[in-house]
Design brief:
InterPro entries: NB-ARC, NLR-like, P-loop_NTPase, TPR-like_helical_dom_sf. It holds the Pfam family TPR_12. With 613 residues, the protein is α/β, with parallel strands linked by helices. It contains 27 helices and 8 strands. The strands form 2 sheets. A 5-stranded parallel sheet has the order 2-3-4-1-5, sandwiched between helices. The chain has a 3-stranded antiparallel sheet with strand order 6-8-7. Helix 17 runs antiparallel to helix 18. The longest helix has 19 residues. It is elongated, with a radius of gyration of 33 Å. It starts with 23 loop residues before the first helix and ends with a helix.
Length: 613
């Protein structure tokens, strides 16, 4: 066969898809590599996530360069046997009389033809491992081999072209052109949002576009179906479509290939509940041991299922969506396994916040690390699946975001925490009572005293009944109720309650306890609100000195106490003491809390007011 030239008209390349968009850079890269071959063999591996369009790119390249190659041959290459089949079919296409030969001889004839001819293109599509093609590549000296593979690593002796998702504009263009080819007057409002939800993955966009066109569904309608029936939509195929080319099936095949690393599927199910980007590896170490975790992440990265950057992991949002969608027919997505991964994620995130004080700036990095991943978990779960750890996470994050000024989000988290604690623990458990108190406090922060005060009153009554009048939680609840009365303008009830609570704090916890300091500050503020600066200012001054001594000058409570004292000086007309204190406190608050923190903004506003007096 070595002496036979390419037979005119012989070739096998899949038809180019009806719609092709983007990939200008990748096509130029392929062109550059081939053009610079100098007559030598050129081998290029296009690698990327399943569904990203590797085969489509290879087909487009072949179509654009039909005049360059004397023969273009496409071989499915997902196994050594498939590669041999493709080479044997090449031999039979070039010399039909060889079709009667044993397959081993036909394979050898196909390889020998490639080794002795020039100007051919061989596409090896969907190669599982570089080792599967190593023997073939070692024998070719001329020609062009384009490999497509999900395998990112191992291509040490060949050129590589990494393939990522489409740009946002390209994804919308792809969807629009596919839909309009069958439904010219389609209203595609919301196409950008749909493509964003699909993570701009070509296969997902193509699958959605075909569905829209055939069912006359709007982008918003498809998103609704995806939210309500994810398992069905991830496997939906158009009339006459290829059931193997769906999002769920493509990644099923990838995980089948990772069967030799059992922890890979386990770790991927865990990752599915986090935010797509910036997942700290430290949050995953509880799922499997460190050696197994590193191996699993390495294998997932090799198949482009995840991206590893430093100490963080990223996952395509659609890989996550499919992975966390139960399917009893898919061994990688068994309902019980997915539920276990969900609950473990709540545990890992909750454990990362071990009763930290959300008002202490030193703890904020931990909260900032956890927050985006907790939001993702909570967005993709329902309250009826919340565990104790989920409830703890909701409560902690509610307190943190409330302190950062995001009161609306805090209320949502704390309502869900209260309801989950009540369902899991009952109405009288300490955690349930604490969550009710926290929710009332956040209502107060939002200015909703109509909800805050009745909830405070009911919670205080239950605290006194369950824990007794001197329990610290009871004292805190009583102090909060007094503050709410003051906020409502009812100083007649607020001040006596503050005074009694402060006396109890000093007796039960001692004069230097942080809660005692807070209670004393609240009483001084109530005296000031009543116009009694003669009692307010000495109490503020003493309390500030104690706060600086006990908590330190940079603690948020100290900053608030200093602001209150400056405000009292201002109210007394003593701007000579008020303004310098405001100025120093503002500088400290900007340094410690940041320029946009609610406390910083209050201090800045008070300083502006004092300067304009």
């Amino acid at each position: 066969m070595e002496s036979l030239p390419a037979v005119p008209g012989v070739g096998r390349v899949p038809a180019e898809p009806g719609v092709f968009v983007g990939r200008t850079h990748e096509l130029a890269r392929l062109e550059s590599v081939v053009a610079g071959s100098g007559g030598r063999a050129v081998v290029v591996a296009v690698h990327g996530l399943g569904g990203v369009g590797k085969s489509t790119l290879a087909a487009r390249f072949a179509e654009l360069h039909t005049d360059r190659f004397s023969l273009a041959w496409w071989a499915t290459a997902d196994s050594p046997a498939a590669i041999e089949t493709g080479l044997g079919e090449l031999a039979a296409a070039l010399a039909p009389e060889t079709a009667v030969l044993p397959s081993e001889q036909r394979v050898e004839l196909g390889v020998r033809w490639l080794a002795t001819h020039e100007d051919w293109l061989l596409v090896l599509d969907n190669v599982t491992s570089p080792q599967d093609v190593a023997d073939l590549l070692s024998r070719v000296r001329t020609g062009t081999v384009v490999i497509t593979s999900r395998q990112r690593s191992g291509w040490r002796t060949v050129e590589t072209v990494p393939l990522d998702v489409l740009t946002a504009n390209e994804a919308v263009q792809l969807l629009t052109r596919i839909v309009r080819s069958e439904w010219p007057d389609a209203d595609l409002a919301g196409a950008d949002r749909l493509c964003r939800e699909l993570g701009w993955l070509p296969l997902a966009v193509e699958q959605a576009a075909t569905y829209l066109a055939q069912t006359r569904t709007s982008p918003a309608g498809y998103l609704d179906l995806l939210a309500r029936f994810p398992a069905r939509m991830f496997t939906a195929t158009a009339e006459g479509g290829d059931a193997q080319r769906t999002m769920a099936r493509v990644w099923h095949v990838t995980l089948d290939r990772l069967a030799d690393t059992p922890a890979a599927g386990q770790v991927l199910r865990q990752l599915a509940w986090f935010a797509p980007d910036g997942i700290p590896r430290d949050l995953l170490t509880g799922e499997v041991g460190e050696p197994e975790l590193s191996e699993a992440l390495g294998r997932l990265a090799a198949y482009s299922m995840v991206t590893l950057t430093g100490n963080t992991v990223a996952v395509h949002r659609l890989v996550q969506a499919v992975t966390r969608t139960p399917d009893p027919t898919d061994p990688h997505r068994q309902p019980a396994d997915i539920a276990t991964a969900r609950d473990n994620t709540a545990t890992f995130l909750s454990t990362a916040l071990p009763d930290l004080d959300p008002d202490t700036p030193a703890n904020w990095p931990a909260y900032r690390m956890v927050l985006p991943h907790a939001r993702a978990l909570l967005e993709h779960t329902t309250p009826d699946t919340d565990t104790i750890q989920t409830s703890h996470l909701l409560n902690e994050l509610g307190l943190y975001v409330e302190g950062q000024g995001d009161v609306g989000t805090a209320i949502g988290y704390l309502i869900r925490a209260r309801d989950s604690y009540q369902r899991l623990y009952g109405p009288d458990h300490r955690a349930t009572l604490a969550s009710r108190n926290n929710l009332a406090s956040t209502y107060e922060s939002a200015g909703d005293l109509g909800r805050a005060i009745p909830l405070y009153e009911a919670t205080l009554a239950d605290y006194e009944r369950v824990l007794g009048p001197d329990h610290p939680n009871t004292l805190s609840s009583r102090n909060n109720l007094a503050a709410a009365y003051q906020a409502a303008g009812d100083l007649g009830r607020a001040i006596p309650l503050f005074e009694a609570t402060l006396a109890d704090y000093e007796r039960v916890l001692g004069p230097d306890h942080p809660d005692t300091l807070s209670s004393r500050n609240n009483l001084a503020y109530a005296y000031q609100a009543m116009g009694d600066l003669g009692r307010a200012i000495p109490l503020y001054e003493a309390n500030l000195a104690d706060s600086e001594r006990v908590l330190g000058p940079d603690h948020p409570d100290t900053l608030s106490s200093r602001n209150n004292l400056a405000y009292a000086y201002q109210a007394m007309g003593d701007l000579g003491r008020a303004i310098p204190l405001y100025e120093a406190n503002l500088a400290d608050s900007e340094r410690v809390l940041g320029p946009d923190h609610p406390t910083t903004r209050i201090i800045r506003s008070n300083l502006d007011s004092a300067r304009s007096s």
